[in-house]
Amino acid sequence: MKAPTLTRKAMTMVEILLVISLMSVTALALYSAMATGMTIWDRAARSSGEEDAAIFLDRIGGEMRGALRFSLIAFEGSEDRLSFASPVRVLTDASAGGPAKIVPQIGRVEYVFDRDKHVLFRRQAEYGQALQGQMGPPRVVMDGVTSFQAVYFLRRREGVEKARSVEKDIPAAVLLEIRFKDKDGEEHALTRLFNLPLGAS
Question: How many alpha carbons lie under 13 Å from residue 172 in its C-beta half-sphere?
């Protein structure tokens, strides 16, 4: 009877080269995907400041366009502060019998730039608070702001007058410029001109 022969199997040089090349391609694909992801992350982080500024300008522009001419709550503005009568949303008191709900009413909206903290914040007051000169707590709407400037355009008989501040009159237009720094310390600026319907009439 013939004894069984043991055969030893080993990888040939071609198989080894094939495995190495497959591992290299896989590693290269993973590295490429990771590098692309980091680039996208960096770009998104850099543009988030611009998006925050654009959202802020859209919001304040919408509220200014809705500003009301109301004798008890005047439009007041300086280079770094805006305050005006506008519809605000207020939570009703649940103790009156029915469920609490959010209702719109006339109130005061205020935007202020805090130079020391580099933030823009918003406050609002419901009708009763506004008449007493009180405001609600501040809420930060954008941070990392290096400067904020408002310029007002007032309609006069002789034409449009440019002003750095305004009291009582709703301006025909407001030019807002906001400057901010991204995470790399590079400064950016956004400027928008808002036409106010009641000020133009």
Answer: 12
pLDDT tens-digit profile, the chain (201 residues): 565 665 666 678 888 888 888 888 888 888 888 888 877 776 665 556 788 888 888 989 888 888 888 888 889 999 999 999 988 887 777 666 667 777 888 899 999 999 999 999 999 998 888 888 899 999 999 888 999 999 999 988 888 889 999 988 889 999 999 998 877 778 888 999 999 887 766
Host H or E run for residue 57 = helix 13-65
Cα 162 from Cα 35, distance rounded (Å): 50
Which residues, other chains included, contact 3 with Cβ-Cβ below 8 Å and sequence gap of 6+? none
Beta partners for residue 73, in sequence order:
70
DSSP at 70: B
3-state DSSP percent of the chain in helix, strand and coil, to 5: 30, 40, 30
Residue 162 CA neighbour count, 13 Å, CB half = 4
Torsion angle in degrees (nearest 10) through CA of 89, 90, 96, 97: 50
Q: Which stretch of DSSP H or E encloses residue 188?
A: strand 187-195
